[in-house]
Design goal:
This protein has a four-stranded antiparallel beta sheet, with helices on one face. Helix 3 (101-138) runs antiparallel to helix 4 (145-165). It is 44% helix and 13% strand. Strand 3 (56-60) and strand 4 (66-70) form a beta hairpin. It is flat. The chain folds into two domains: 24-90, no CATH class; 101-165. The longest helix is centred in the last third of the chain and has 38 residues, at 101-138. It is an alpha+beta fold.
């Protein structure tokens, strides 16, 4: 719970967690293998462990957040988890200490709502995939291997959204 006696400390070690850097891209790139710059973006091996080399694409948005995409289908949270990071590490640290209390409270509320909205969006999209598959099965249409793989991916994403909503 935020603000408790261990706030700001790592649960595993009891040590204070390192603050997020102002620019998160260098931190993330430093933890990846075989990083290649391509213009303003980067390609690297995805740390999740599949055999696709160079499957991870990263770039920095104008506001400093890191845009991350795995072409092998890994979610951002899976990629970051394999690096020992969280979704928050995609965003630059913001100095909120000098903000008025009402503005800090508003930012805290927005931060708690955002993951829920994203999870609900995932559930909506993946429910459509499941519905299309059910219709195909009902019509006794055969499902190709890539269709089955996409249904499994939908199930995986639905489970991930459930974790956010619990």
């Amino acid at each position: 719970m935020a603000g408790g006696p261990t706030a700001g400390k790592s649960e595993r070690s009891g040590m204070s967690a390192a603050p997020r850097p102002a620019a998160p891209l260098p931190l993330i790139l430093s933890r990846l293998q075989r990083v290649n710059q391509q213009g303003k973006s980067y390609r690297a091996d995805c740390p999740v462990g599949h055999s696709s080399s160079g499957a991870l694409s990263l770039s920095e948005a104008d506001d400093g957040r890191v845009m991350l995409h795995c072409f092998a289908g890994c979610s951002a949270s899976e990629v970051l988890g394999a690096l020992g990071l969280t979704l928050a590490d995609l965003y630059p640290r913001r100095d909120t200490q000098n903000l008025p209390p009402l503005e800090r409270a508003r930012l805290r509320e927005l931060a708690s709502i955002s993951p829920w909205r994203a999870a609900l969006g995932v559930l909506s999209r993946e429910a459509t995939v499941v519905e299309v598959a059910a219709t195909m099965i009902e019509r006794r249409e055969s499902l190709a291997a890539e269709d089955i793989a996409r249904i499994r991916q939908a199930a995986h994403r639905i489970h991930g959204a459930r974790e956010v909503l619990q």
